[in-house]
Design goal:
- With 461 residues, the chain is of the alpha/beta class.
- The protein has a single domain, classed as Glycosidases (TIM Barrel), CATH 3.20.20.80.
- The protein has 15 helices and 15 strands.
- The strands form four sheets. It has an eight-stranded parallel β-barrel with strand order 2-3-4-5-6-8-11-12, surrounded by five helices.
- GO terms for molecular function: beta-glucosidase activity.
- This is Beta-glucosidase.
- One of its GO terms (cellular component) is cytosol.
- One of its GO terms (biological process) is cellulose catabolic process.
- Its EC number is 3.2.1.21.
Amino acid sequence: MTTTQPKQEQTQREFPPGFLWGAATASYQIEGAADEDGRTPSIWDTFSRTPDKVAKGDTGDVACDHYHRYKDDVAMMAALGLDAYRFSVAWPRVQPGGSGPANQRGLDFYRRLVDELLARDIEPWVTLYHWDLPQGVEDRGGWVARDTAARFADYAAMVHDALGDRVRRWTTLNEPWVAAFLGYGSGIHAPGRTEPANAVAAAHHLLLGHGLAAQRLGVPVGITLNTNSIYPATDLPGDLDAARRIDGLLNRIFMDPLLKGTYPIDVRGDLAGVSDLGFIRDGDLETIHQPLEFLGINYYTTQVVAAPDPQESALPDRTWPGSGDVRFVGRGAPVTAMGWEIHPAGLTDTLRRIATDYPAVDLYITENGAAFDDEIGPDGRVDDPQRTAYYDAHLRACHDAIAAGVPLKGYFAWSLLDNFEWAEGYAKRFGIVYVDYPTQARIPKASARFYSDVITRNGLA
């Protein structure tokens, strides 16, 4: 008697051989163990304890308890078939207070994590800074202070000395735009300062820290930017200028110094009423403009913008120094639980623009994903068809970019786990794995099974 095997779906869109498939997390969002083994507070510990800053008063004290459950989490990564895992190191865990000698107990955690990943044939991708600045460094001025860039380079060298024999891929910073403009401009992220001029200084010092760290490590490094396409609402001059201004403050203010060694002239002009840019010293741009092994792209959505409304008298948005009167109007597309419009074609546009406008550098999608309101079903499963559709559409957008000649080399889903979503606390779930916080049980969602199949076939059906 013979049996008929089910016919496997044909792979319609295959990715290039060697394309890297991974998932990503960040230290404060998942580790927990906030006061164990010598770790001291970060700005996020302080911020999350400040009334009305984080939804429901949530903190990262326990989060996903990854600090104690990392072996099980790595086993789950292996079961999904991940090639790589992108995680961040907590600065206050390995250098308490942000100064002085290394805390070996903190470094030992990352040594154990890296060893566990390598034992499972999963490549570790280390991000040195994902926003959890030691509170002691913030007390001395934070990223507004030039000295923080030098302190960051010292810390980066400390981590590289401990892990450099086993880790090949290094990312200096994650999303410096968020750290600078949401942390020091609008204040909706830690440290919660509302100082637009100092936000611009923080952006520069973050980039300077990247360059100094790259010099100290002495190996090719990458950096991750949250970048996307900015579209004008119409072809009218005012809307076109609004798009130019926001593109300058989101994209070009970081990409130009990193990849061209200069700040855009028009952005300098837009900021003239906010800052004299006196914090930029001779030699800074040469330091920032270090050779990049790769550029990481975090993509979630795009923006449609319009000229200021002369009838509006609202206070300018401190998130956008010098351009806080620009209106964000949207396109009326479906949105995620974060209220972010879903626009996969914008990812293709973004990748093609970077490949066209900037010197050739390998690109990786270091974050891409969506929050939806997930629930455990009666059968104990978590079905998330909206997230699965989001991933499918955005992976197709990546494939389109590769077909157009973009040097895209890999993709990291955000996030491996549901986690502490910054100012949203635990109210928003981005994971492909559901975390039941009271029990810390992990339940791979339908999107995890979809992604695992993509990895297995190196493509899309």
